[in-house]
Amino acid sequence: MTRGAVGGIAVGVLLLLGCSVGASGGDEPAAAPHASVDAGATLEAVDLLRSGTKFIDETSFRVDTDIGGIVMIRSYADNVKRRAATKLSASGQVIEIRMIENAIYMKTNADLPGVGKEWMSLDPARVPSDFALSFAPGKNDPGGSARLIDAIVTARIEGSQVAGTLDVTRMRPGNGINFQPNPGETFPDTVRSQPFRATLDAEGRLVSFVIPEADGLPAASLGYADFGKAVEVVRPQGAVPAPAALYPQLGLGG
């Protein structure tokens, strides 16, 4: 995975909540075979992780997303009070989103055709579904932890941690980390057994999910913190209606 391939994704607004990173399908060495894991152990570990994400619907939190050390996202969310703010930085380009109840505001310094660089007010009805700006259960985690958990193939509990493998090809598009093969390439079969390690805190909450660099994919991680801390989101003054040119550039189809 080259730095250029990661940095190049900053061009589109799709980066904000669905960070799609190209992956090489070249001649990577075959992954070492994974030890078989009892299906019951995997189910138990997955259930533990799902339980560890219940806080998403119950309290405020911060989530940091890091892809290859190049794409960095920090999000604050309070789904109970319907407040959220996200800032993405990649290759010198920045995208900010603020959400207050049903209002969505966005600003970017990226050069998007037909789009200015002031704060804009978006029409929620025109935002593509895969841009995933929502407080609805199942769509309200800027880290997209559920998508990662759904892609787990094998897992085992190791104290306060869960370790195992996931199938990158089963990761649905959406919030947080997304991996896509580079144009004209396909994923190597090894990405169907990508290693991961997740950590739970003393309260049983998921606090980190780490996918190390392997088989042409960059390292990627989520980190959850600041549980219960007030999320203050200020409505930007002077926001203009988003131009029609913006909406086709949103989401993974942008």
Structural notes for this entry:
The structure is a single chain. This protein is mainly beta and 254 residues long. It has 3 helices and 14 strands. It has one domain: Clam (outer membrane lipoprotein receptor (LolB), chain A), CATH 2.50.20. It has helices spanning 3-7, 39-51, 145-150; strands at residues 18-23, 61-67, 71-78, 83-90, 93-100, 103-108, 120-122, 152-158, 161-166, 176-181, 194-200, 206-211, 220-225, 240-241. A hairpin with a 5-residue loop joins strand 11 and strand 12. The chain is globular and about 55 Å long.
Give a topology summary:
Layout: H1 3-7, E1 18-23, H2 39-51, E2 61-67, E3 71-78, E4 83-90, E5 93-100, E6 103-108, E7 120-122, H3 145-150, E8 152-158, E9 161-166, E10 176-181, E11 194-200, E12 206-211, E13 220-225, E14 240-241
